[in-house]
Design a protein that fits this description.
Layout lengths: L3 E4 L9 H16 L3 E6 L9 H14 L5 E5 L4 H13 L3 E4 L3 H14 L22 E4 L6 E6 L3 E6 L7 E3 L7 H11 L4 E5 L6 H10 L6 E5 L2 E2 L15 H6 L4 H9 L13 H7 L10 E2 L2 H14 L2 H14 L8 H15 L5 H7 L12 H7 L4 H13 L6 H15 L3 H13 L7 H8 L1 H24 L1
Parallel strand pairs: 1-2, 2-3, 9-10, 11-12
Antiparallel strand pairs: 4-5, 5-8, 6-7
Helix pairs in contact: 1-9, 5-6, 8-10, 11-12, 11-13, 15-16, 15-19, 16-18, 17-19
The chain binds one RNA strand through helix 4, strand 7, helix 5, strand 12 and helix 10.
Length: 477
RNA sequence: GUCCCCAUCGUCUAGAGGCCUAGGACUCUUGGUUUUCAUCCAAGCAACAGGGGUUCGACUCCCCUUGGGGACACCA
């Protein structure tokens, strides 16, 4: 039997990390079993659903690389089918019309709560003598009155809920539109879903859905309820509470691979292993290894993974994502073979000292355009009057270089050190500030080589005149 | 209120009755490497919620308590 899983978000906002992880688990399981992954958009709530949200979900999925084999299927396209099934249930006496107004139901619940009872529909329309079709009504499913429903959850094991806890849920609203618990059942059935992998906030819906499935004489899929994700503060992650959209992570400079790796380890594990490529995830994944406990999102660990992937993924692959940030930050570094070679050379150098692509992009800006001003602290400390001699001597040495490369540059630096009898700190740091404008950077030899001779000399001049000016100011005082 | 689910370092987790003096990872601290900043390497801090059972033996099984989460919609 082919495994068919699905991800069924409702388009009421962006794709957040919790949803993304559920989608990932479903996707992985389908891939692992060489099954099928279906994307279904649950948009029966027309008031809250939006086109923009549909697009945001699609964008998030595609950025993560979670491709679907079928879909997206929209529930709003399937109203005819829902109506047909509702009619069938009505015909078979498994559902009935109910004429209570919303106000009456609210009052009923209110009273039950006041008495300390379970707030639920009392089933008083179950046995009416007549069911006029023209009078405003909803349609309710006749839930079994006794016995209990058993879920053999792949993650939680045996769960049993008594039918006396359940009431006759509404499957069609007054306007005739079907409701969630009903559409899910019809869809999962029609789409041949074999494994329902979803958040554990749906555990309570499962028995209702199973009862409807039974009424339809349908096979019961396997269920796997994955725990929720909590925020940094241990509170449940929700759209209102720190649940950042997946695309926000792209904007913040994370690689999809890093987010995927982070997400898969949230609630799932394979021994002590921390690093998983997508192929390895597929290979090692199993539903049984998913934890029962909710887990908290920890940005620090995500950062670590992100840096790990910036360092270890092929530079050409990182470059694809980095370029997006360069454009975003208005850094003119693309559309040029020479520049992309420089970028790829810069990636391993800077990946070691940044945690996100966003930071990386901003730190290599100096390579593609002149910086406006020196970092104040760095300039104060290293572009001192005494550094003038070192830089001007180095400049002469640089000018005479025929071959402009890492080795020759380092050689020139070494020679200058010997000549002036100074240490690396006295020349390396001034040079660093002169070239990059800041006090931290990778090795100066490689940086100068990548920057080019002409630009290097120009920056040296700039630093020299900065020092000159400083000297003048000092004399004036 | 009722029902359901959950419970190992701050966080993510390993642990399927003896392998546990509870392991790994992130974070943090300290040291080493390093021309800066990082990286890297080494070391350290740090947990089985509490109470009862079961058993020769419980982190592992059962019960209770406590704590957290979720659901009880004409939302999904």
């Amino acid at each position: 039997m082919t495994v068919i899983t699905r991800f069924a978000p409702s388009p009421t906002g962006y794709l957040h990390v919790g949803g993304a992880r559920t989608a990932l688990f479903s996707w992985l399981y389908a891939k692992k079993t060489k099954g099928e992954f279906v994307l279904r958009i649950e948009d029966t709530d027309r008031e809250r659903s939006s086109e923009a949200s549909v697009q945001a979900i699609l964008d998030g999925m595609s950025w993560l690389g979670l491709d679907h084999d079928r879909g997206p299927i929209f529930q709003t396209d399937r109203f005819d089918r829902y109506e047909q099934v509702i009619q069938q249930l009505l015909d078979e006496g498994k559902a009935y019309r109910c004429y209570h107004s919303q106000q009456e139901l609210d009052d009923m619940r209110e009273q039950q709560k006041a008495k300390g009872d379970n707030p639920r529909y009392d089933g008083s329309c179950r046995n009416l003598s007549a069911y006029p079709e023209d009078k405003p009504h909803v349609i309710r499913f006749k839930n079994p009155l006794d016995a209990s429903v058993v879920i053999d959850d792949l993650i939680r094991g045996h769960i049993e809920i008594s039918n006396t806890e359940l009431d006759d849920l509404i499957i069609a609203r007054t306007d005739g539109t079907p409701t969630y618990n009903f559409t899910v059942v019809v869809d999962d059935l029609d789409m041949g879903i074999t494994h329902v992998i979803r958040g554990d906030d749906h555990i309570n819906n499962t028995p209702k859905q199973i009862n409807i499935l039974h009424a339809l004489n349908a096979p019961i899929p396997k269920y796997a309820h994955v725990p929720m994700i909590l925020g940094d503060d241990g509170k449940r992650l929700s759209k209102r509470h720190g649940a950042v959209g997946v695309m926000q992570y792209r904007d913040d400079g994370y690689l999809p691979q890093a987010l995927l790796n982070y997400l898969v380890r949230l609630g799932w594990s394979n021994g002590d292993r921390e690093i998983f490529s997508v192929d390895e995830m597929i290979d090692l994944f199993s539903l049984e290894a998913i934890n029962k406990t909710p887990s908290a999102f920890n940005t620090k660990k995500l950062n670590w993974l992100n840096q790990h992937y910036m360092k270890t993924l092929p530079a050409s692959e990182v470059a694809v994502h980095l370029n997006w940030h360069l454009v975003e930050q208005g850094i003119n570094a693309t559309n040029n073979a020479k520049k992309s070679a420089v970028i790829e050379a810069l990636i391993p150098l800077y990946a070691e000292r940044t945690e996100t692509l966003k930071q990386l992009a901003s730190q290599i800006r100096f390579m593609f355009e002149d910086f406006k001003e020196f970092d104040v602290k760095a300039a104060k400390k290293h572009l001192k009057i005494t550094a003038g001699e070192a830089l001007s001597t180095l400049k002469v040495s640089f000018e005479s270089l025929v071959d402009w490369n890492e080795a020759s540059i380092q050689n020139a630096i070494d020679e200058t050190m010997t000549k002036l009898d100074i240490g690396m700190g006295k020349i390396g740091m001034p040079l660093r500030v002169a070239i990059t404008g800041s006090g931290q950077s990778p090795g100066m030899d490689i940086l100068c080589a990548l920057l080019g001779k002409e630009a290097t000399l120009a920056r040296l001049d700039k630093a020299l005149s900065f020092i000159e000016q400083r000297k003048l100011q000092a004399e004036q005082r």
